[in-house]
Amino acid sequence: MRLAVGLVHYPIRDRAGNVVATNVTNLDIHDIARACRVYGVERYYIIHPMPEQLAFVSGVLEHWRIGQGAKYNPMRRTSLTMVHTAESVEAAVRDWGGSPELIATHARTVEGVRSDTFKSLSERLRLESEGQVLLLFGTGFGLTEEFMKGCDGILEPIRGASKDDYRHLSVRSAVSICLDRLLGSW
After folding, report:
1. Which pick of 20, 34, 97, 161 has the fewest CB atoms within 10 Å?
2. Euclidean distance between CA atoms 1 and 133, whole angstroms
3. Which CATH architecture has domain 2-183?
4. pLDDT recorded at residue 175
5. pLDDT tens digits along 57-88
6. Strand, coil or helix: what is 104?
7. How far is CA 22 from the centre of its chain?
8. What is the rounded CA–CA span in Å between residue 167 and residue 86?
9. Could you give the maximum distance between any two Cα atoms of the chain, in Å?
């Protein structure tokens, strides 16, 4: 089964619970691309509705793909080859083609949305030769419940070992952990 990752910047909840569009960060562009490259993800979409934010991403990508950065660090250039931008999840789906299953991620379970365990999704990704999955990660304080209820499923939350059940990872860390649990060779 084919896998793409989408980093969604809208609709996102902020710390007060408001629906916002978050800013793209340079670290998210690079670090998530590198994790996707390590685990063989087909595409990594940075999804943002604002043209200015997508232009920022395009400038970063141009520097590392064909500018001075390409000469300075060819390994980074290689990891950024699968990065694409889209103004919405729907636009990412159109760009990738097909009819991918939309699987959201969140630090908590969401009532009314089918839940996939890491094990079940990992098995499907490895064993099913047909189909596509677009694994969606939110920024800020996560994707809105309304958005997630429109997805085909939600991946079980990452549970750490803290005694107080702390679950506020950076999205870069969450992507790396999820990809390792889903596609890692362990």
Report:
1. 161
2. 7
3. 3-Layer(aba) Sandwich (3.40)
4. 98
5. 999 999 988 888 888 888 888 889 999 999 99
6. strand
7. 14
8. 28
9. 49
